[in-house]
Specification:
three-stranded parallel sheet; 270 residues; GTP binding
Length: 270
């Protein structure tokens, strides 16, 4: 049985990265274990449409999904861009070479050791037993292997392990989806409640504004009436002052006339 030296995860460079992409990465890590990241290479397609410069800018952009930023960092920036539409053999060969170089770098970093966990180790042992049976191995080899476990027992155990791993992964993903659904429903309820409260507040504010406007109109009308009455009062006051001044002038004139008359009579007597 073969071993996993590198795992390729393929994305379209021109498509929007979705929540499902993030869940896929989480599912792979849950199923294979966190160490699978050490063997991961990200492959982006549609390079003809986006261009290498734009692709590199996209990877370093702050708007690039955080989960992909984290994965890219964890896998030592092992990423390659592939053009789907090119017919240029040199370009195709260069793309393939770049990918194979990344695979070689993974093998080199891991010192040639493939990905392995308990489940994969037992699968390989069981597969080796099957090959030994098929090749008609010696009695000594078979008896040595039988000391560990029989071929059927290994495969039964591996089957159980795979099923348990899958069931556990499915259960965890289902739990996460249920929790996210519950959280989303709660968030929607909070938003609905907040909108309702906001609408109530706006309605009360509109009523308060209308009442304040009405009171303002009343005050303005009263002020207008007051100003008009004040104007009338001032006009009357001015008129009264004028009448008083006129009467004073008349009185002064009369006093002067009387004085003149007195003076005139005195002169006549003399």
């Amino acid at each position: 049985m073969g071993y996993i030296h590198a795992m390729l995860m393929v994305f379209s460079a021109t498509s929007r990265f979705s929540h499902e992409d993030e869940k896929t990465i989480e599912a792979i890590k849950m199923f294979f274990g966190g160490t699978i990241i050490d063997h991961l290479i990200l492959v982006f397609t549609n390079g003809d449409r986006i261009g290498e410069n734009n692709w590199k800018k996209m990877l370093s952009d702050d708007n690039f999904p955080k989960y992909l930023q984290d994965v890219l960092k964890q896998c030592k920036n092992r990423a390659v861009l592939f053009g789907n539409e090119t017919n240029d053999k040199k370009k195709c060969d260069a793309q393939l070479k770049e990918l194979l170089d990344l695979v070689d770098s993974v093998v080199s970093i891991k010192c040639g050791k493939p990905f392995s966990n308990q489940m994969f180790a037992r699968i390989n042992i069981a597969h080796e037993q099957k090959e030994l049976h098929a090749k008609g191995s010696s009695t000594e080899q078979l008896s040595e292997l039988k000391k560990e476990r029989s071929y059927d027992e290994y495969f039964a155990q591996v089957t159980r392990m795979v099923e348990e791993k899958l069931n556990k992964t499915i259960e965890m993903m289902g739990k996460q989806l249920r929790e996210e659904k519950t959280a989303r429903q709660k968030a929607e309820e909070k938003v609905t409640e907040a909108v309702s409260k906001s609408q109530d507040q706006m309605r009360r504010l509109r009523l308060s504004l209308a009442k304040a406007q009405e009171e303002s109109d009343k005050v303005r009308e009263e002020n207008k009436k007051y100003r008009e009455s004040e104007k009338v009062r001032r006009e009357k006051e001015e008129k009264t002052k004028e009448e008083i001044e006129d009467l004073k002038d008349k009185l002064n004139n009369m006093e002067r006339e009387q004085q003149n008359m007195k003076n005139s009579n005195s002169c006549n007597i003399l």
